[in-house]
Amino acid sequence: MNILVLNCGSSSVKFQLIETDIDTIEKNADKRLAGGVIERVIGQALITLHAEGQPKVKIAEPLHDHKSAIDYILRWIISPESKITNINSLADIHAVGHRVVHGGEKFTMSALITDEIIEQIEDSIELAPLHNPANLKGIMAARELLGPGVPQVAVFDTSFHSTMPETSYLYAIPYQLYRRHRIRRYGFHGTSHRYLAYRYRQLVGINREQVNIITLHLGNGCSACAIKNGESLDTSMGFTPLEGLVMGTRGGDMDPSIIEFIRNKEGMSVREIDTMFNKQSGLLGISGLTNDMRELLAEEQEKDDRRAKLAIDIFCNRAKKYIGAYIAEMSGAEAIIFTGGIGENSPIIRERICKGLDCMGLTIDKKLNSKITSGKEGEISTGDSRLKAFVIPTNEELLIARDTVRTVKNVPRRW
Ligand code: ADP
Prior knowledge:
Elements (H helix, E strand, L loop, with lengths): L1 E7 L3 E8 L2 H6 L3 E9 L3 E9 L5 E7 L2 H13 L16 E6 L10 E2 L2 H9 L8 H15 L5 E5 L9 H4 L5 H7 L8 H15 L8 E6 L3 E7 L2 E5 L21 H10 L3 H10 L2 H6 L5 H11 L2 H25 L4 E5 H6 L1 H8 L11 H6 L6 E2 L8 E4 L4 H13 L7
This protein binds adenosine-5'-diphosphate (ADP).
């Protein structure tokens, strides 16, 4: 089956076209046919398109909404110019898989989209007001453009974490708040953490139940996950993606009393403070320069910038703290896995996070570590390291495509 994978953000649409099927999944022989991203979907959009084996194409074109962006993608896919093999008309797109950020407590697995499912995703909007509306726009647009005959599947960022026990997901606030409003840890980046667990067991040749690892997704958004016996035991993002690690513009863990204090001192509204915690904090907030780790590393190295160094040190220290906490919570782990733009590309950040973890049995092999960048995969710990470390480039799109096939063909599985 040819699966169109859509990841609709508030101002962008990312896509991949993946050929896969039940037997293809078993053989691990899925084929990525094309991919790309449309940024600034409202206005002068920046379009990047890439068919496998062909050069990347970059175009600027005025678009007015998510629907026109998806229409543009579909027209490109079936056009002779894209040179995608075996795709000549919309009938060659057999199903669509959507990344949906929040599935609430309802969705513990991917779901075939029906009117009822759309209503349930709408019910989760109050939990993810920044993300779910864009995901829904993508679903509605794909439905209109491809027709009701093409099945669509929602794959939730939260589902993988549905195995967390109460001891991980409940906050220690009055229990009625959970009962009345479902205030709890949901966790995000689930498809990424799940992919890492899947790929790790393939790499080391073990069964799902034997996977005991700590995964660190370090991109613009960052989260850690404790995966015990193949399932999410705990994760650092919480009720919203704000909690946990230091991120590009989010501060992660902090004392909630700060909100009232800032409100009084700075005369800001709670909404303004929330925006500040989400958009002006983290690496950007501490450095006062940028949310981009690459730039911060350059500032630190070339100009010896104190606050750039501080931001990086706080970032690494927080990640280290979570590793320690999760090792304790899991009663020991076999490996730490790095992924995301920072985790995949920056040997120095990986080294700084792991520094001092020899007390937990981890020794980084500097040579191996320095060689793994730009999409490469492999081990970065020494042969005799008791706790291992790996870099595994994430591939959420692949799992979304696979879940789509399994859901459409009614072969439900978590992995
Ligand atoms: P998103 O979460 O938006 O998908 P990415 O996973 O692409 O983001 O990660 C973006 C982050 O990765 C940025 O902070 C960027 O600076 C960082 N990054 C990318 N390449 C490197 C590199 N070579 N060294 C350090 N950081 C890098």
